[in-house]
Amino acid sequence: MAQELTRGVWLLELGFPVFGANAFLVDDGEVTLVDAGLPWFGVRRELRDAGYEVADIDRVLVTHYDIDHVGGLRNLSNLDAPVFVGQRDADLLSGTYDPPLFHHKGAFHRLARVLVPIPERFEILPLEDGAEIGGFTAYHTPGHNPGHTVYVHDDLGVGLVGDLVWERDGALTPPEWWDSYDTHEIRRSIRRFAGLVPTIDVLCMGHGTPIPRGGSDALSNLVRRL
């Protein structure tokens, strides 16, 4: 069931706690969908629960190319909006970059592109670090994926961080090695991001319960433990 975290920011819960991912909808006068969940769960239903239809979406921001974050795009057949994604993951998504075959996640991505292809009709727009899209700023945070990107909306005080961090039992943690390309690079990205961004109140991650206040403090606490 969709949940409004703060004015204009909705959590879309797609799947089950151990098998699924969060997506988010931000309405600041333009409607932005951030990630789309797995292909087998109801992103359309969650949108309607929040009071929106697919036709209302002005843009999609993708944090990274993993099935549980982009698979739901397959269910948005009438989406007429650009899909933004970090450059390296845009290459993964489009097939112009082949990840390493003899790497656990690279092999998985090769398989995922065959089993759950993203329809070619979508307009995929690659992003560089620091790009501004409407009220959002994009930050390149590699490690979990080569092109992992997080989005900060300064005016709303919201950070949408995908799998840069996970939430467990009220605390933040880096993603596990088995679901990442480079855990050392993840830690570097967490430190860099925490040091770069302005104050974040609401912290929205792909897995776990969003932090509705004190997001920057939670990130700082994690950095001290790394």
From TrEMBL:
Pfam families: Lactamase_B. It comes from the Archaea. Residues 20-207 form the Metallo-beta-lactamase domain. PANTHER family: ACYL-COENZYME A THIOESTERASE MBLAC2, METALLO-BETA-LACTAMASE DOMAIN-CONTAINING. This is Glyoxylase, beta-lactamase superfamily II. The lineage of its organism: Archaea, Methanobacteriati, Methanobacteriota, Stenosarchaea group, Halobacteria.
